[in-house]
Structure to design on (411 residues):
């Protein structure tokens, strides 16, 4: 359990992080973690309907949410300070006392299938799933978090109960409490609501790091839409959320994000949105540049994307600007109890160590121009790249785009 006292705050947030998700699934169980997350909102022993679950929190002036990430599932409740003790009571009830009624399991199949259809129909979402399938081919992380239509239809109530029994246990759970609460009170809340759970040292599935495993440099999915969505990704060579040099990847990504945005939005007028982000798991990932352009601008856009990568200006001024931006992105919102709970919870999940904001800031500010130059030289090569396009582009264009990358990335 992690506790952070924020005596000036008007709220208390409780978060449960369960180590589960697509990383620990296979072709048969794909989508189980997300399906199970949905089932927890179909009713619990104390609150046997979705409406009663909502009322339990909202009647106390709070809110709740959940999501399934690539390597964990998160459940959250945020309450006004005077109702702080209900936060842990609620997330425990949500995650450990689900009803899992047969009719609810059947009903949820339709809801999750609709969610999957929506993600496929939303290009800005679907293109990232294409990237996942492309660069992590053959690895569990290459699966869509939602599963497939076939796996959703196949999953049974017993499958969900088995998944819950396997992953939802104290040894696999991080409880985070942040807000206007004393540590002693938070400990009492935790023991009251979670103290009876039995520890189980079951063997946890060992999953190897995801490797950059592409069968071709360029992947195109042709679709009749108005824009082409383009992702140019560079593998991080085993560095991810748990890496000691994570700040270097964040600073390099920020430098590219600034340049890509200004070039494609303001200078060229090609895009409404454009940028670059570190797209990471515990032990790997990619630095990904992303743009959306009109179909006739596709070839030129790819050329300009690679130009921005090749010609990135690395000096003390540009690195300092990016360092300041990463500090802002990482720390600016930590006055919010939810944000702080997420800040320390993910650190514990990925590294087993929680750094205070001052240390995180110092690590970011320690990134040097030499660090960034070395990282750029290591990552930004043709052999380390992958290009994914979604939109009205013929797959026959793959070779010409491959050729462009050959000429530009090898120069």
């Amino acid at each position: 359990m992690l506790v952070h006292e924020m005596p000036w705050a008007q709220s208390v947030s409780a978060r449960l992080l369960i180590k589960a998700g697509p990383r620990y699934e296979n072709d048969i169980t794909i989508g189980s973690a997300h399906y199970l997350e949905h089932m927890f909102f179909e009713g619990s022993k104390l609150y046997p309907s979705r409406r009663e679950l909502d009322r339990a929190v909202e009647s106390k002036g709070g809110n709740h949410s959940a999501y399934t990430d690539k390597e964990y599932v998160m459940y959250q409740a945020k309450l006004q300070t005077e109702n702080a003790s209900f936060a842990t009571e609620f997330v425990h009830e949500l995650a450990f006392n689900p009803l899992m009624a047969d009719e609810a399991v059947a009903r949820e199949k339709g809801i999750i299938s609709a969610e999957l259809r929506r993600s496929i129909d939303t290009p800005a979402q679907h293109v990232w799933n294409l990237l996942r399938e492309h660069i992590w081919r053959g690895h569990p992380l290459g699966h869509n978090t939602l599963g497939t239509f076939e796996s959703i239809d196949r999953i049974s109530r017993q499958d969900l109960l088995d998944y819950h029994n396997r992953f939802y246990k104290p040894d696999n759970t991080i409880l985070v409490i942040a807000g206007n609460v004393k540590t002693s009170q938070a400990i009492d809340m935790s023991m009251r609501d979670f103290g009876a759970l039995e520890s189980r040292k079951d063997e946890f599935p060992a999953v190897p790091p995801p490797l950059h495993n592409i069968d071709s440099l360029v992947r195109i999915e042709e679709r009749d839409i108005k824009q082409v969505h383009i992702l140019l990704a560079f593998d991080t060579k085993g560095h991810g959320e748990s890496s000691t040099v994570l700040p270097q990847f964040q600073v390099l990504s920020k430098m590219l994000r600034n340049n890509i945005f200004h070039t494609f939005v303001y200078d060229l007028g090609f895009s409404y949105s454009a940028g670059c982000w570190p797209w990471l798991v515990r032990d790997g990932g990619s630095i990904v540049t992303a743009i959306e352009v009109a179909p006739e601008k596709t070839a030129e856009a790819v050329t300009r994307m690679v130009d921005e990568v090749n010609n990135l200006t690395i000096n003390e001024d540009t690195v300092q600007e990016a360092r300041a931006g990463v500090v802002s992105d990482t720390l600016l919102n930590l006055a919010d109890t939810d944000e702080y709970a997420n800040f320390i919870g993910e650190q514990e999940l990925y590294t087993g160590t929680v750094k205070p904001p001052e240390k995180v800031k110092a690590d970011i500010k320690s990134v040097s121009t030499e660090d960034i130059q070395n990282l750029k030289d290591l990552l930004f090569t043709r052999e380390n790249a992958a290009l994914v396009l979604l939109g009205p582009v013929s797959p026959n264009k793959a070779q010409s785009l491959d050729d462009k990358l050959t000429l530009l990335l090898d120069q």
About this structure: The chain is about 45% helix and 15% strand. The longest helix spans residues 246-267. The first strand starts at residue 2 and ends at 5. Residues 218-409 form a domain with the Cytochrome Bc1 Complex; Chain A, domain 1 fold (CATH 3.30.830.10).
